[in-house]
Every structure is written in C-alpha cells, then in structure tokens.
Design goal:
39% of the residues lie in helices and 18% in strands. The chain is built from 11 helices and 9 strands. The longest helix is centred in the middle third of the chain and has 19 residues. It folds into 2 domains: 151 residues, NagB/RpiA/CoA transferase-like (Rossmann fold); 64 residues, no CATH class. A 6-stranded parallel β-sheet has the order 1-9-7-4-2-3. A 3-stranded antiparallel β-sheet has the order 5-6-8. The radius of gyration is 17 Å and the shape is globular. By secondary structure, the chain is an alpha/beta fold.
Length: 236
C-alpha cells in the first residue's frame, strides 16, 4: 500500500488530506486548525489516544459522548455533538483507494460524518488503511468490531470466543502489574488478525456494538471533509 497514492485517490474523491508522520504532529495540526468552534466527537479510540478532548477545550466548546460532563447523559451529549460546527471521528477501515468504512451502534458517528456539521475530520492511523473495498469491509467487521467489543468487555460471541485466552496472555505479560485497562487496550490494539483469532458472528446479542455500516465512496456533498492520515498504529 502506497500512502501517497491513497492520498491522491482521496483528493480525487473530494477530500482535503493531511499526512502526519506522527501522532504528535497530528495533535499539533488539529489544535492549530480547529479554534473558536463547537466541536463534536464520535466514539473513537484514536481520538482518545490523541487526547484531543482536553486540548481542544482550551479554544472550543467540545462535546464528547464517551466522556460526558457530570450529570449529562451520553445520548444527550451525542445529540449536541451531532449539531456541532466541526465533527471529529476515525474510521474502522479505509481501502487503498480511499473508501471509508464505519460501523456504529446508534448511528451518531455515521450521521455526523455526512450531514449537519460545517466540516468533518476523519482521523486514522496507518493500520486501518489498505486493500480493496471488500478487504476494508472485512477489516471493519472482523477485526475492528471484535477488538472494540473486547476493549469494552462486551458479552458478544466475537469477544467471548477469545476473551479468556487473550486475558491470560495479557496478564502473563503484565506480571505483577495485574489488569490495567489502558494497557489492555494497547495489547488489543496491536494484535494481528491471527493473534486476535476471532471474527464477527453477526450476532443478536444485546451487547452487540455494530448495528449499522456506512461506506463513503466519495466525500458527501454539502459538507467540507478532511482526512488526517497518521503514519503510526492508532486505534482499532
């Protein structure tokens, strides 16, 4: 996969593209670019890793459903995020040709990525990019989905199939440190497909986190959209 060719494809699809060689450069770029706005977040491990919710608050009004303000419900925060001037999210996968795929539970990330905001930023690590559209869909469903279910300790077939085995390996690596959630997330993040050893079961579990899938074949009309590609492993 040639990241410069992917950038060219994204530009042809109507996106602005920013390549960042490190997460530090992406952090600086976004904080310098987004100022004086209302900013909504879609649920994203990548955004959490970048720590943008704290830094952007200095010069913007920020709504993060994963981290709502005290006494505010996550769903109410998600509604405010969807109505913000700027919307930030990642992607579960992107093909080498720039097709962007996302799975969602309630649809707030999906709707916020194509309708409402003045500008949308897709922020993703190099680990999520590559292959054909079909291969990107496979990644979203069978790699990103189970990894997120494991991260969130969901009782879904994809997670339960490997949870005990992976937790045993993780705790052996941790030694005396025991179970730490942030370390667990990092462990899950770096698992290859073979190491992960599970897949989507298309389940009916009440803990299921993937109800809808959206594919952006081109930039949505009527909204400005930018893709920030980070040449590091970020998110799931």
């Amino acid at each position: 996969m040639n990241i410069k060719e992917t950038k060219e494809s994204l530009v042809k699809k109507g996106y602005t593209v920013k390549l960042c060689s490190s997460k530090e450069l992406a952090f600086d770029y976004l904080n310098q670019t987004i100022t004086g706005k209302t900013v909504g977040f879609g649920g994203s491990q990548t955004l959490t890793e970048l720590n943008l919710r704290h830094s952007l608050k200095k010069n913007n009004t920020v709504y993060v459903p994963d981290f709502p303000e005290p006494d505010v419900k996550p769903l109410d925060t998600a509604k405010l995020a969807g109505g913000a001037e700027v919307f930030l999210l990642s992607a579960n996968a992107m093909s080498a040709q720039g097709d962007i795929i996302n799975l969602d539970l309630i649809g707030n990330r999906l709707s916020g990525s194509m309708w409402g905001p003045q500008k949308v930023y897709f922020i993703l690590g190099i680990n999520k990019v590559g292959g054909t559209l079909e291969e990107a869909i496979f990644r979203a469903r069978h790699i990103a989905g189970p990894k997120n279910a494991l991260r969130l300790h969901r009782k879904t077939p994809c997670a339960l199939a490997v949870q005990d085995k992976l937790e045993k390996i993780f705790l052996e690596q941790q030694g005396d440190k025991g179970f730490n959630q942030l370390d667990w997330q990092t462990f899950i993040q770096h698992l290859s497909k073979d190491e992960l050893g599970t897949h989507c079961y298309d389940c009916t579990s009440p803990d299921r986190i993937c109800s809808s899938m959206l594919i952006h074949l081109r930039k949505p009309r009527g909204v400005e959209a930018e893709v920030v590609l980070i040449e590091e492993i970020m998110g799931f």
